[in-house]
Amino acid sequence: SNHKAILSHGIATAVLLILINCSEICQATPKYMADGTMYARPPSVCVDIPASLKLCRNVGYRRMVLPNLLNHESLSEVVQQGTSFVPLLSRNCHQNVQVFLCSLFAPVCIPAPPGEPMNGPIPPCRSLCESVENRCGPIMLEHGFMWPPMLNCSQFSNEGLCVSPNVDSGGTTLEPPMPSPSTNPVCPPCRIQLQTDTLLDNYCASEFVIKIRVKKIKNKKNRGIREILADKKKRVIYKNGPLEERDHQRMKLFVIGRKRCTCPELDELASAKRSRRTRSYYLVMGRKDGRKLKVTVIHAWPKNNRILNRAARNNFGSDQCPSFDSAGI
């Protein structure tokens, strides 16, 4: 029969509620990929969470299960794929967003009793997934990206062994307060703080990084969209990623946010004289979505900006970004 056990992960106010039904979990059963195809999962093993997995740094436990719930079988793959989600932590969209993501990328290891088979990874409860999606999904949408299919909450359940949302002593789910609405919020790509660690996190999570000179801006504030046409001759590529020749020829970038959001530096530039626009440079980071180049970070880059100039000289610390061969077991 089911019984409850609570794991304290040492995170302030974060409690993981574990519902255990070992008759369902401990047996070796086939697993299924997100597309429905069967996947023969290798035997589970416990390994140390690598220091390079920044997504799960200070999550509250030190050992994780491989393969994880995203079917990553090596630590290098976990680290490389997890990097894309690090900037989401800084958005503070949900108090349990790290707990949720780490339950997928680095599931907590619970050693099996002597003589018994190793348990597989503990999935998040559906209620935890839905709670995080409700708060963090809109943040991703503000950047122009949908909630990823691999995080589809319908694949999880509230039955059996699972990691739940925060609960208080009375068993009530603790939902973080909704952020108060702002009449003219700043668009997410325009909010970056110029700090070395922040720049590195965003650089590693981005598919392309460019220094551009703005040629033209189309403001569609009512739709929360700004189209930037960059000067093709005046740019520096720090990270090319998936950009193709036609992308370089067009150099059309999209800054996407909620309706009527503001981007002060860009909005001021849009109404400036052409002579000023031709002197204005910007740092742009982003991801390619279909044929659209969507901006996730944009910041003015004046000549005397020491932080950006120093970061550029070091190529934004790109050698510190995880790759498939940078974290082995």
TrEMBL record:
It comes from the Eukaryota. Keywords: Developmental protein, Differentiation, Disulfide bond, Glycoprotein, Secreted, Signal, Wnt signaling pathway. It is found in: Secreted. One of its GO terms (biological process) is cell differentiation. One of its GO terms (molecular function) is Wnt-protein binding. Disulfide bonds join 56-102, 129-153. InterPro entries: Frizzled/SFRP, Frizzled_dom, Frizzled_dom_sf, Netrin_domain, Netrin_module_non-TIMP, TIMP-like_OB-fold. Residues 41-165 form the FZ domain. It holds the Pfam family NTR. Residues 1-28 form the signal peptide. Residues 187-321 form the NTR domain. Belongs to the secreted frizzled-related protein (sFRP) family. This is Secreted frizzled-related protein 1. It comes from Ciona savignyi (Pacific transparent sea squirt). The lineage of its organism: Eukaryota, Metazoa, Chordata, Tunicata, Ascidiacea.
